Amino acid sequence: MKAITNKKVSIAIIGGTGLEELFKSSYAVNVGTPYGFSYEISICEIQNKTVVFLPRHGRKHDVPPHKINYRANMYALYKLGVERIIATNAVGAINLNFKPGDLVIPHDLIDFTKQRHLTFYDEAPVTHIDVTEPYCPEIRKILIEKSKEIGVVHDQAVYVCTEGPRFETPAEIRMFRTLGCDVVGMTGVPEAILARELGICYATLCFVSNMAAGIANKLTYEEVSEVSKIVMPKIRKIILESIVSLPETKSCQCSLSVKLGKKS
Fold first, then answer.
1. Which of 143, 161, 13 is nearest to 77 (CA)?
2. Distance between CA atoms of residues 146 and 4, nearest Å
3. Which residues span the domain enclosing 155?
4. Which of 43-47, 109-113, 157-161, 220-224 has the lowest mean pLDDT?
5. Do the domain assignments include residue 260?
6. 3-state secondary structure 113-166
7. Residue 225 has pLDDT above 60, yes or no
8. What separation, in Å, do the N-terminal and C-terminal C-alpha atoms of the chain show?
9. pLDDT, tens digit, for every residue of 104-141?
10. Distance CA 160, CA 97 (A)
11. How many domains does the chain have?
């Protein structure tokens, strides 16, 4: 543990089933936080960079999206010294130009969750975080470049997050399309917001696992899993190449939001 964590841990990957094999030789640890213990975090070396992997739903994928302890997970990464996060999400396509298997790099989001802890700032000082750009432009640029080398990628998309664990109704999907949403998922919020509050750069690499309700036939978890198995090798390749391509010095403004948002 000490031999690894004494090195600078600046990059984290948040994802689910299929990414674990990137971290086969890693050391795993649970990190205590004011919000509880994080899920098991793997720490390993990739291309001479110390990288951590956090399975969003737990190591056994047994935590539903509305029950994930997002604050503990994100604060644990912060304690480890993480400065950049690349997340992955399976999403349903609302935009009819998006198809299963397509890659998506969202540029904006809409929050339709209902009962999650959305902030670290429940007490003074009153803090209003700027999320004009909810996803780090520097990480997004690299993800887009690497994704375009692999397959079909949509580099402009609005991600809407719902509470889950159920899939959305056709009426909800029609509403989201009217609002300008392109893809729908259940885990992108509050991750992106909490990362911004901690001054951590965050962007996500999504893959379309299915067409949303009312567009295709009935939705099943098996359908999502099958597309995931096909797309995951591409996801792993993009993540590895993006890790290598991240510059040592950040040029974005993500970490400034906290300083500018606190009321004096």
1. 13
2. 28
3. 7-248
4. 220-224
5. no
6. CCCCCCCCCCCCCCECCCCCCCCCHHHHHHHHHHHHCCCCEECCCEEEEECCCC
7. yes
8. 40
9. 999 999 999 999 999 999 998 888 999 999 999 999 99
10. 17
11. 1
